[in-house]
Every structure is written in C-alpha cells, then in structure tokens.
Amino acid sequence: MPNPAAPTADAGHGVHPFPHRHLTGIFGLQPWEIGFLLDEAEQWIALNRGTAKHDNRLAGLTVINAFFENSTRTLLSFEIAGKRLGADVVNMSVAQSSVKKGETLIDTAMTLNAMRADVIVIRHEASGAVQLIADKVDCPVLNAGDGRHEHPTQGLLDALTIRRRKGRIAGLVVAICGDVLHSRVARSNILALTALAAEVRVVGPPTLIPAAIERMGVKRFTDFDAGLDGADVVMMLRLQRERMSGGFVPSPREYHALYGLTPERLARAAPDALVMHPGPMNRGVEIASSVADDPLRSAITEQVEMGVAVRMACLDVLTRARRGIEGWA
Length: 329
Hints:
Layout: H1 31-49, E1 62-67, H2 73-84, E2 88-93, H3 105-114, E3 119-124, H4 129-134, E4 141-146, H5 152-166, E5 173-177, H6 184-195, E6 199-203, E7 219-221, H7 224-228, E8 233-236, H8 252-259, H9 263-266, E9 274-276, H10 289-292, H11 300-318
Helix pairs in contact: 1-5, 1-11, 2-11, 5-6, 5-11
C-alpha cells in the first residue's frame, strides 16, 4: 500500500526517499521515510510467498550478522533475507568470537570493517553499541536490537502488519501492553506508530512503565482493562526477566491474573481488534494460548512473515549506494 504523500527524489520535492546511510533506530526518521521502507517491503511479500524465493540484486555482496546477544527468530530472519537477495551471509558466533577473549567492541568493529563487509547487522545487549560500531565502519550498519534502546526492523514489521491488516495506521488506537520498561520493541513501535499518526497507549504495572513516558506522545495506563477499552490493536510484550533485578512483578501467575491477555479481556477492545506479540511468547503469563492462536484476531505468525520482507527491504535500500544505483550513489 504505497504512500502517495511521501516525497521522493523524482517527485519534484528534491527530497531523497531514504537519505540515511545506516538504520540504527526509528528515532530521527521522517514519516515518509518510514512509509517508504514499508512500501519497499511490499514487493518482497509476494516473492516470499512464491515458489522461487530468490532475487540476485545483492549478488557478490557480503552481509555479516554480528549477534553479540542470543537470538533465534531475528538472526534467522536476517539470514533468510540476505540469502533470498543473493548475498553471501556470514553469521558471527559470539560464543566463539574474540569478544569472549576480552577484545573491545571498537576493536571488533575495526576487525569487521577490515573484512570489507558490505552490510553489518548487529545485535548487542548494550544500548548505543550499534551506533558506536556504525561510527567506526565504512559500510551500512543495521540495528537488530541494542539493549533497551531500539529494534527498528521490529517496529517496521509491526507497522507493516498493522497497515496490511487494517488498511491504515493513522487514527488507530494501539495498546502496547506489559513490560514496556525493558522493551526496545516498545520504544521502536512507539516512535514508528506515533510518527504515522496512530494513538498509542502503554499499559502495564507502574513498575514496568518508564517514568515520563508521556513525553513520547503516548497515553499511560496502569489499569489493564481501561487501557484495552476500544483498542484497534493490542500488542503484548513478554516479561524480560533477564533484564530485571529486583521485584518488578509478583509471580507469573499473579501477573497473568492482572495483566494477562485472555479472551474476556480482549472483549474490551474493538470487536475486530488485532492481537500482536513480537515473540518469544510466555504463554499463560502475558497471553493466553487461546488468544495467541485465534485464527481471526491473532497476527503473530504474520509478524514473523513481514519480518523477512522488511529486512529484505532494508538490506536492499541500504546497499543501493554501494551498488551504484542511479539516484542513490
């Protein structure tokens, strides 16, 4: 679903459709730049649903997936995206890397740069680590999640899922529920969805909502039922216990009773409300299985599908200058 209002280099506006060398976050992107990436992802959905899932436009280019933090779906999604575009894809194993031997992040960045990669995809447990590497290398860098900071491709794929299922984003009420405090997914979604004129609510226990979150243009709810009232999209977040120290929540059972999405609670949202979750899910904690597996309301598996298309679009767009594409060099 193209965005006709998006300025482009050949639309008489004199504005490049995506003038950024890296994609380290949604922060700083203009609405039409976000829309441009979503539009670019649309073409790859059809290819990925076909039999011949291959395009050679990145043939000869090397993509390094440097994941300093464990991942399954994001790493696999980026690997599939790169290979379907014809790139040589190398996955860097942190367990076997020199980082475990005491090498600094900057030294690692310089090592990767010396290998003449054409794109580096980075996931790191420290906020800001991706930008640090981006400042030191000669090729485009794509953020696959850094600490509590951002996860831009997740924000983009969620926006694409919503736009395809609802036909629009502007004017929709989106409730982002659960562990907002520790969630880079929540941050990227807030930035993307508010930029695209959605009304965003954050819903969760007081201990799991950042202070002054309203400055991001969202509405804050600690009453789960009130936060769900009339919502068009309900996006659940998992409890990130690996990032918690101290008593943020009671037991998982009590958390589910207060903030778990059940069919009864979902009934408070709009009748056609979309249910989303970035995964991995804690079934029976933040979401009931009957809701997660609802064939009409749940878009969770569709989010995974959109992830591959969005990452293909990002790899394509970020490498156009290196490939000498006219208007991008």
